[in-house]
């Protein structure tokens, strides 16, 4: 089974420009500076991961007291929030976030998809 990924809409925001805009906006509204502000920015990632867990539990109805409270679309949205939080945290650590991420992505790709490690196609 081959999956087709739709092309982004012509008016879709650029990922890295948006990360820069979000970082600048958050930085201009921060309540804490220095190490404390940095630590709090990193902790935001844990908060977002917790929201993914909450959405998965809600989508599966695992809490008998609450039942089904979320959809799998909610889980997707929360996962996107994790990605945003991680990229903004990376940008907080370095103005070269795009280059750092791309370099690391290349390393992970090469390590994971090296000959003999590549996954089988979905339609085989």
What does this structure look like?
The protein has 124 residues and is mostly helical. It has 4 helices and no strands. The model has no long low-confidence stretch (mean pLDDT 91).
Order of helices and strands: HHHH
The total beta strand count reads 0
Number of helices: 4
First CA to last CA: what distance?
A: 8 Å
Structural class: mainly alpha
Shape: globular
Which runs of at least 5 residues are low in confidence (pLDDT < 50)?
none
What is the arithmetic mean of pLDDT? 91
Please state the CA-atom Rg, rounded to the nearest Å. 18 Å
Q: What does the main sheet amount to? A: none
| Approximate helicity band | 55-70%
| Assembly context of the chains | single chain
Beta-strand level of the residues, as a percent range? under 5%
